[in-house]
Amino acid sequence: MLKGWLLALLLTAAGTLSAAGLLADGDTVAAAVVLVACLAFAAVNSPLVFPASLGAEEAGRRSAADGRPVIYWRPGCRYCRRLRFRLGRDARRAHWVDIWRDPAAAAAVRAVADGNETVPTVVLPDGRARVNPDAEWVRELL
């Protein structure tokens, strides 16, 4: 669980330390700007921007029942973040699985990505998969 939050925690700590140094020098405006920028970047790189993550088994069951794709992702992945933001509100209709939280999910991604844990990986209910797909293709599936 902590692994997904590591980048966000590091960014928050770096922003806090940088802002404290700027405050000590008397530059309150720069300190505020640095702190807000680091906190915003930390939030974007945290699991908060993604819909609630399911386990691979549960996501597979739900996908079979409702026909929606399963999207495997991991925190800090810029391609996952890009897909998430390009999908906008439609992203909530997919079943998202964090491969760092579920070893079975990581194994599922390795099975379709030539042994690599390349994300985002989208798996359709019929078993077809696409690694790092175009957002418009995913939106059509939703």
From TrEMBL:
It comes from the Bacteria. The chain crosses the membrane at residues 29-52. The keyword Membrane applies. Keywords: Membrane, Signal, Transmembrane, Transmembrane helix. Residues 70-124 form the Glutaredoxin domain. Residues 1-19 form the signal peptide. The keyword Transmembrane applies. This is Glutaredoxin domain-containing protein. It comes from Streptomyces griseoincarnatus.
